Amino acid sequence: MPERAVDVEGVVVRFGSVTALAGIDLRVRTGEVVAVVGHSGAGKTTLLSAMAGIVLPDAGTITVLGQPIDGLRSASSAGVAVVPQGNGLAAVLSAHENVLMPLLARAVEPGAAAARATEALDAVGLGEIHAHLVEELSGGQQQRVAVARGLALASPVLLADEPTSELDHASRAVVLTLLRARAEAGAAVVMTTHDPEAAEAADQVLHLDDGELVPG
Length: 216
Ligand SMILES: Nc1ncnc2c1ncn2[C@@H]1O[C@H](COP(=O)(O)OP(=O)(O)OP(=O)(O)O)[C@@H](O)[C@H]1O
Ligand SMILES: [Mg+2]
What we know:
four-stranded antiparallel beta sheet, 7 helices, 10 strands, 35% helix, globular, binds adenosine-5'-triphosphate, binds magnesium ion
């Protein structure tokens, strides 16, 4: 039986008068790829942010691999990695340095971290541009660096916020294959997307509408 990786129960998130999540229940198992779809402003990023401990719910609970999430520290120690919408890369560092930094922050030995960063960039097809500064890269290349950074962490839970939005067909297929491979290696993968093909490749598709999960 696959293990429960993420358990979201009754989660409500409000930003002032806006209710971004209106009481969400969902479970993600290890080995599963889940796609979260819905219109712009539906609450997709907020849901991932809550799972990642970036946003604290006003009500409800989130548990990752049995650990309650009450902030960034608990999410990180439970094994959550994030590919943020907009990439979140440091523009004046190289692609390789951007992938390397979170590995070093998690106390991966420097030699092993450098090798893992190289391997992850190779996997997303950026073998030639490891040393380029992020600000010199195209939007699609930057997005692939962000995906490589998330993958390199080899975390048991990977949350990817629109990881293929800037990609052409071939790169999108590569990224979806890599996300699937993480799931096959035992991770739980949650991806938001506006892309029907990406959603089709998932095991479970969750439809968000104005902060509520609705039947597809
Ligand atoms: N930090 C914030 N402060 C105030 N309101 C916010 C904040 N973050 C999100 N919101 C609001 O919460 C709602 C959900 O936003 P969210 O970013 O989760 O949507 P989304 O589904 O990810 O949209 P998109 O497809 O455009 O990325 C929106 O109404 C948005 O304006
Ligand atoms: Mg979003």
